[in-house]
Amino acid sequence: MKGEKITLRRQFLIKVLSLLLIIAIVSGIAQLYLMKDQINKQSNSQAEAVANTVMRGLEQTDLATTTIESQIDLTLVSHSKHIGTLLKGKNASEITKQELSSIKEELGLAGISIIKENAAKDDFVAIQSTEEEEIGFSFKEFGYYEIGHLLMAGQLPKVPGATFTNPYTLVLPIAQSASHADKAKFFKYAYFYEEGTDFIINPFIEANEVNQYLENVGPETEIKELVKDGEFVQEIAVLNPKVFADPTLAEQIYPPLKQVEAGNFTYGTFNDKKMLAGSSIETATFIESVKGKKLYKMFIPLDENRVIYIALDYEKMSGPLYRHSIILIVSGLASLVVLFLLTARFFNRIYENLQKIKTQITSLEEGDLTVKSSIKDGSELEVLSESTNRMVDKLNTLVTDTHEQAIKAQRLSVLLESEASESVKKMYTLSTEATIKSREQLNEITAFLDEIAASLLILPNAGGTEEILERVDALKQIAKDRTAATTDTTITLSDLVQSLHEQASELSDISNSLLDYMGKFKL
After folding, report:
1. Are 171 and 77 in contact (CB under 8 A)?
2. Quick one: the chain helix, strand, coil %, rounded to 5?
3. Long-range contact list for 502-511, CB < 8 A, 24+ apart?
4. Beta bridge partners of 189
5. What would the pLDDT profile of 508-519 be if each residue is shown by its tens digit?
6. Interval 72-98: pLDDT, tens
7. Pick from 414, 441, 420, 417: which is nearest to 493 by CA?
């Protein structure tokens, strides 16, 4: 029983523990899944917020750039036409540097160049300029040879990124000068052809301050502020997917193109660049480990020329949520452990009480009507124990009374058997004597009546003899019948007493058997 008890208890505890472990694992997985989903949503929300800030900055920069360059464009176009008027009627070879310098000073320009077609070289080259660095500048070298022909033909020149185009006129965006290799300088160039001349006028103004202003109010400054102030921001960049698809575009002057137009792209991977070089770019978010950092990356295309890239520190963002989730999981596991301990303790108490009742019932099965169980836990088991104890008391009383009655029945059956035995002997003697005596009397009566009948038969002519003989025969028959009845009565009484003796003996056996059964009970 002890082994069975241990086995049942172990089975129950193993089942409870397994169930609690399953609950803990399922709840842990659910929490991790929900936590991961929450982290992704939070990361995406923060990335979108940063992206919206960058987009607003780009819009503002584009508006400022467009406004400023539009004003500069109009000024350059006006100056170009004025220069054309001043130089009209002259050949390119007749224009001197001093003349150009005088016009430059008058108009407040950074410089003026005269570009003439060199048919031998199939090129347009700057043959005169206020700036020595500009002399020798070649259209062909930078892939704009056809632009010269279009300008001189009065056709609309198509240059990507041009801020102003008109027949005979082209204004390029602010760009770094290719002629000033020693120091980075930014200029805005205009190209104008005055009809009737053999040259193209190239006035330009220095735009370092304008470029510096645009950089200060542009996305670069805002990106630096976002990276500096952002708790989770690692880097932000405005990328040009066309340059990733064709890196040679970064080598041309107009329009000035760079892979990274603003910000930093130091965590860019081969797969990132491959995606940017693809034919179609869609909004993409993913988690990637780069240079020992786990980053949440987002790419948002603004148009075909710009993509906003944001990299957030995923570990830093997910750390608090992971810690919170771990605290929840640990507290949940602790709660389950406490629940298991309480359940095990509760089950052990119930099991011990059940074992007490089971032991009591087993003792009852073995005939012990004195065994009692003592349970004091205020539960239904206590009520069951009290009911079982009352049942034991009643059984004990019932069996005790039955035992006493069985003893009395045994005593009386023994006396009855003894008296019946004596009665049988007496009845047997009486029956024998009565039978012998009745037969002797019957023989004497029969002999006497036979003698009377014989005497009557020898009397001569005695009247009424036949009637007397008939009465003598009747008396003989009566005597026989009475003798037979006496014999039958004696035999019947003898059988009755014998039966009574047998029943008394059987009752004695039953009493003895009942007492034997009663002896098996412990009272």
Report:
1. yes
2. 65, 15, 20
3. 504/413, 504/416, 504/417, 504/420, 505/413, 505/417, 507/409, 507/413, 507/416, 507/417, 508/410, 508/413, 508/414, 508/417, 510/409, 510/413, 511/406, 511/407, 511/409, 511/410, 511/413
4. 204
5. 778 777 777 767
6. 888 889 999 999 899 988 888 889 999
7. 420
